[in-house]
Amino acid sequence: MIDYKQLWDRWVALTVLSENDRKSLLSKLHIEVTSGVQALATLATSEMGKLLDDAKYSERDAYLEAVAPVAALGTLDGYFLALMDRGVNPQTASLAFN
Description:
By secondary structure, the protein is mostly helical. It is 72% helix and 0% strand. The chain is built from 4 helices and no strands.
């Protein structure tokens, strides 16, 4: 049985890693994962852009520029949570193809 409290605590700790630790973690990912994260973040940002166009939001471009990295990190953190749910520690596992 999965201890969801422990899983949550480990995931939250992972999401607040220092920039250097996060860069190290990113360097261990499959190119397909980084491409997929980028594609999902681009799609999310595009959809937000459509909503902002409909709302006639005057700061649309600045908002999208600020939100794009958040969409990418949200996608990546979701991937890490899915790995952890399967018992894979993203910080210690070899996630890239050799």
